[in-house]
Design brief:
There is one protein chain. This protein is mainly beta. It has a single domain, classed as Umud Fragment, subunit A (Ribbon). The protein is 11% helix and 40% strand. The chain is built from two helices and eight strands, in the order E-E-H-E-E-E-E-E-H-E. It has helices spanning 28-32, 99-106; strands spanning 2-5, 19-24, 39-44, 47-58, 64-69, 81-82, 86-94, 115-116. An eight-stranded mixed β-sheet has the order 6-5-4-3-7-2-1-8, covered by helices on one side. Strand 4 (47-58) and strand 5 form a beta hairpin. It is globular, with a radius of gyration of 14 Å.
């Protein structure tokens, strides 16, 4: 599934206006196969965020949580990512073809629900 990137938090790998392709996460097995270093897309409120996993924790009930950070950010994300919030894992990037989407979204009343940060 494609997603347009709106910020530079994952530079130099992914730039604003790039489109990333994601493999959807649909099963618990796929979540359990995620590793430190993988780039995931997750939902935080109404925003999609794509950041790198920097740590994985498992609680006593075997529930996983993921600590993430944008490669270009100075600090890790303040909230952990729960397994249910993960939408996909990064597969490929197509440079710059998402610019028209950013321009349209920036000049209309449409929200940023379809643009990931």
């Amino acid at each position: 599934m494609p997603s347009v990137v709106a910020t530079g938090s994952m530079q130099p790998l992914i730039y604003p206006g790039d489109v990333i392709l994601l493999e959807q996460i649909r099963s618990e097995e796929q979540v359990r196969n995620l590793e430190v270093g993988d780039i995931i897309q997750f939902q935080r409120e109404e925003i999609l965020i794509t950041h790198r996993i920097i740590e994985i924790e498992e609680d006593k009930l075997k529930n996983l949580t993921f600590h993430t950070k944008g490669d270009n950010n100075s600090a890790p994300d303040s909230q952990v990512v729960k397994a249910n919030d993960i939408r996909g894992i990064y597969s490929h990037v197509i440079p710059k073809i998402g610019y028209p989407t950013l321009i349209i979204k920036g000049h209309s009343q449409t929200g940023f629900e379809d643009i990931e940060f």
